[in-house]
Amino acid sequence: MMLGGYAFEALGFGYQNIKRKVNTPWVEISVGQSLNPQQWTGPTSDEVTIQGVFFPEEFDGQSQLDGIIAAQLAGTEMMMVSGDTIEGVIRGMFTVQSVEEDMSSTMPAGLPAAMPM
Predict the structure, then answer these.
(1) What whole-number distance in Å separates Cα of residue 116 and Cα of residue 110?
(2) Of all residues in the chain, what percent are helix, strand and coil, respectively (each to 5)?
């Protein structure tokens, strides 16, 4: 899978699970003497949550995460592609809304150890 130019791979910058949430709200229309009917207002968002582990020292996963954070701070929209190099599926354009790092594991030199994303 790729988000923009950043590949999620088995080594270095990998993911453990992906969650997707598509929001398509309905609103109530007030009417007298009856139950309120609902009207579909169309899709409002398509959210993808990626959780994983990266290895900053062994496989340079930190530079990948730093690049995604830089794109987030710049408000850059990135294409998400899943599948392999032969049969990639374009999932659409996405923006990074939040990044959460857990730096609770450290190595002797003070660098982060393998961490979940």
Answers:
(1) 17
(2) 10, 40, 50
